[in-house]
Write a structure and sequence with these properties.
The complex is a heterodimer.
Chain A (H helix, E strand, L loop, with lengths): L1 E5 L11 H4 L14 H20 L4 E4 L13 H11 L4 E4 L11 H14 L3 E4 L5 H7 L7 H17 L4 E4 L4 E5 L14 E4 L4 H10 L2 E4 L4 H18 L9 E9 L3 H19 L15 H8 L4 H7 L12 H6 L3 E4 L1 H15 L3 E5 L7 H19 L28 H6 L1
Parallel strand pairs in A: 1-2, 1-11, 2-3, 3-4, 4-7, 7-8, 8-9, 9-10, 9-11
Antiparallel strand pairs in A: 5-6
Helix pairs in contact in A: 2-14, 3-4, 4-6, 7-8, 8-11, 10-11, 13-14
Chain B lengths: L4 E7 L2 E8 L4 E5 L10 H7 L3 E5 L16 H14 L5 E6 H13 L4 E7 L22 H5 L3 H8 L9 H17 L18 E6 L9 H8 L4 E6 L6 H4 L1 H12 L1
Parallel strand pairs in B: 3-4, 3-5, 5-6, 6-7, 7-8
Antiparallel strand pairs in B: 1-2, 2-4
Helix pairs in contact in B: 1-9
Chain lengths: ~425, ~260
């Protein structure tokens, strides 16, 4: 199984009375809450943490895209990924991802991802989310009724830009370009960098991933218990389509807090978890469902009850119903796995096998967790959990993992020596 | 209240429901946000002396095909087809809210198509200094009060009638909202101000004095932009969909203007 270290980059200093005084952490969160000088330290801490995760042996580091969002400070994950490309050597770089319809022209994504792939020597995983309603329709003003069509068209354009050898013209419904010929080109060109699709619980997305042979990722904040229905739905659909149960077809997000004992884990991780589930997910429900964002097929499935649970869970903002914000419920609900290393090993193996997920994306930093605690959580996981779960799914081949240049062929990145730089 | 006669016309290969009732000279009605999930007392008032013809815009209740419309030109041409196919070319045209913006486009771009024009709180403009509310970012319980001065009127409009399909009905209501969003996202601003000067038809502009979506002051902006003779009238105790709040008063004003 692949163990991937995911950072959301939450603003760590939202005030205690945030939920009382502010309607939403997203879209219209007030600028007065953002202190750029504090954010300087947050970004640098977060990037230290990502680099540390690579250093202690996680298979990948993951970043994602959010806009106008108090729990996600990465409007451009590509900026972080390009820095990581220079400060890591063998770790996969999972950009999870670029919301294609927000880029004009979408070939920008083809170019930037190709840059990251070149700089990193072919370590990129290219994530293509549609994007949440808050990010796309509200913060970025995209028309919810056109969003998916634009997304699919942008996908076609980006893929063609990566694979077509000759300069071509693209006459789409939403994008018209006379000369498409991106420079640079990705190192991973057989046929292109692995494409992973973070999505909700819609059957259309599952079918599309199967058809295109992409990895489907269910990135819920609500853990393995709530995610079970969705992942079962996914595997049932794969079976119907005649696809094998290769666990590497799937990715799943899980919060974890590991410590010497369960009690110590509770002591360490309750505050950051409650900060995340309390303040960070305080989203005004008026931004939940722009008309047209959810396809009619998915609405129908939801109303008919087949998928009610999955559809609700799929949308990060209709979580009001769940809304556990105290540590006991957070842990009982399976949102955050906690315990001693052995207890976490057992739970991770259970998550992997019950959901049949080969790519486990771990949130080991959440809410206002400090860098020290984050590194502790990360190190303990790497040293005491990872070795005991890595063997899972070893009889399956991960066909969706980056294929970098051979180590000896890659550029040697000189060590960064800030003290010398400062002296000059 | 008797039922209207229902027929269907095709626009770009998709069906659009047409409701007709009454006798006398034709009067076209393009509905506002939410469309016409049901026939309205307001339309009965109009039908007492006029043949009311109410085609559903693509995506509105009884119609599909909004998914084919990508640009404002696509929308304008779809509405033009609706007008032609329902025999409304040259008739009096009434449009409210989103339907109002399209009625104004018809009068501006195809002047021979519209004899007299009446607009009830039309979309199409946006003023930074007096921003319109966002009808597509509302908590569920706030929406009725945003649409009507008496929120119960909106709730009544969209409530499933007896025997309605419990799965398809809510989808149809969402589709109407999507269709409006598809044409007017995010601000309702279609740069209609550039074309108002082309409107030569005598125009009545009605605005609910308690319109919570579009500030009633927008009425003056429309009046100032339109070239033909223009009259502005405020409707007391009415919100954005004034024809739901005050069917009699609005019908009287409309009929007087079209007389």
């Amino acid at each position: 199984m692949k163990l991937m270290w995911f950072h959301l980059m939450p603003y760590t200093e939202l005030p205690d009375d945030f939920n009382k005084k502010h309607p939403s952490v997203w879209v219209d969160i007030h600028s007065s809450l953002f202190d750029p000088r504090r954010a300087h330290h947050m970004y640098n801490d977060f990037m230290d943490e990502l680099e540390y995760a690579a250093e202690v042996g996680f298979d990948a580091v993951c970043v994602n895209e959010h806009h106008s969002n108090g729990y996600g400070l990465m409007p451009s994950p590509n900026l972080i990924a390009s820095s990581l490309a220079r400060r890591t050597t063998d770790t996969a770089l999972c950009v999870m991802g670029n919301s294609l319809a927000l880029y004009n022209p979408p070939t920008r994504v083809a170019e930037e991802f190709a840059m990251i792939d070149c700089i990193s020597g072919g370590r990129l995983i290219a994530g293509f989310p549609v994007g949440s309603p808050m990010d796309t329709c509200y913060a970025y003003g995209q028309n919810p009724s056109l969003l998916r069509e634009r997304y699919y068209e942008a996908h076609d354009l980006v893929k063609k830009a990566w694979t077509e050898k000759e300069t071509f013209s693209f006459s789409g419904r939403y994008n018209q370009q006379r000369y498409v010929n991106i420079w640079p080109r990705p190192i991973q060109n057989d046929p292109h960098p692995p494409i992973w699709i973070p999505g909700g619980g819609s059957i259309e997305t599952w079918r599309w991933c199967a058809e295109m042979d992409y990895v489907y990722c269910y990135l819920s904040y609500y853990g393995y218990k709530a995610g079970l229905t969705t992942m079962q739905g996914f595997w049932n659909e794969m079976a119907k389509l005649g696809k094998d149960r290769n666990p590497y077809r799937a990715g799943f997000l899980q919060f974890v807090g590991v410590a010497e004992s369960r009690q110590q884990a509770l002591d360490l991780y309750s505050e950051p978890a409650e900060y995340f589930y309390g303040r960070c997910l305080h989203v005004d429900p008026r931004f939940a469902l722009p008309p047209g964002y959810t396809t009619e097929a998915t609405q129908r499935a939801g109303i008919e009850g087949m998928m009610t649970k999955a559809a609700n869970l799929a949308n990060p903002s209709t979580k009001a119903a769940l809304k556990a914000t105290n540590m006991k419920d957070i842990v009982d609900g399976g949102y955050v796995l906690i315990g001693s290393p052995d207890e976490v090993v057992e739970q991770i193996r259970h998550v992997g096998t019950s959901l049949n997920v080969g790519h486990l994306m771990l949130l080991l930093q959440y809410g206002n967790m400090s860098k020290d605690v984050t590194k502790y959580n990360t190190r303990l996981f790497a040293e005491k959990v990872m070795p005991k779960v890595k063997d899972l799914f070893s009889d399956w081949e991960d066909k969706w993992w980056p294929k970098p240049m051979a180590k000896g062929q890659r550029a040697a990145v000189p060590a960064f020596r800030p003290q010398l730089a400062a002296a000059e | 209240m008797s039922e209207p006669k229902t027929s269907t016309v095709e626009v770009n290969g998709f069906p659009c429901r047409v409701w007709a009732k009454g006798s006398g000279p034709k009067l076209g009605f393009l509905a506002g946000l939410g469309g016409l999930p049901r026939w309205l007392p307001f339309l009965d008032r109009l039908a007492e002396t006029r043949t009311v013809i109410a085609p559903s815009l693509p995506g509105y209740p009884g119609a599909t095909g909004h998914t084919e419309l990508d640009t404002h030109l696509d929308w304008v041409l779809a509405v033009r087809q609706l007008i032609d196919k329902t025999g409304l070319a040259g008739a009096d045209l009434l449009g409210a809210s989103v339907g109002g913006a399209f009625a104004a486009e018809m009068a501006a771009i195809f002047p021979a198509h519209v004899r007299k024009l009446c607009l009830i709180a039309p979309f199409g403009l946006f003023d930074d200094k007096e921003p319109a509310a966002d009808p597509w970012a509302q908590r569920r319980d706030n929406l009725p009060g945003l649409m009507c001065a008496d929120g119960a009127k909106w709730t009544e409009l969209v409530a499933p009638p007896d025997g309605a399909n419990s799965v398809e009905w809510p989808i149809e209501m969402t589709r109407a909202s999507e269709a409006a969003a598809r044409a007017f996202w995010p601000l309702g601003n279609t740069r209609l101000d550039k074309r108002l000067g082309l409107i030569a038809a005598p125009t009545l502009i009605l605005w609910g004095e308690r319109d919570a979506v579009l500030p009633p002051t927008y009425a003056k902006k429309f009046a100032a932009g339109i070239n033909g003779s223009t009259k502005v009238q405020t409707v007391a105790d009415a919100g954005h969909l004034a024809y739901l709040d005050q069917p009699d008063a609005v019908a009287r004003a409309v009929l007087a203007h079209f007389a």
